[in-house]
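User: Could you check the structure of this?
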Amino acid sequence: MMESIKPVVDTALQAAKTGVEVVHTAWSLMEAASEKKPPSELLSQSAVRRIQGQDG
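Assistant: Sure, the predicted structure tokens are below.
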């Protein structure tokens, strides 16, 4: 009986591990995006306008 349950348990554990990895990756990406400074903190207003094509 235990032999027939082992593949099911192994598959469930692997799925759980994969889910944890996906959540960890998504969390890392969201955390990095939230910590990113906006361009206005890194560039002058004139540089931002030039990049946006608003300043000749």
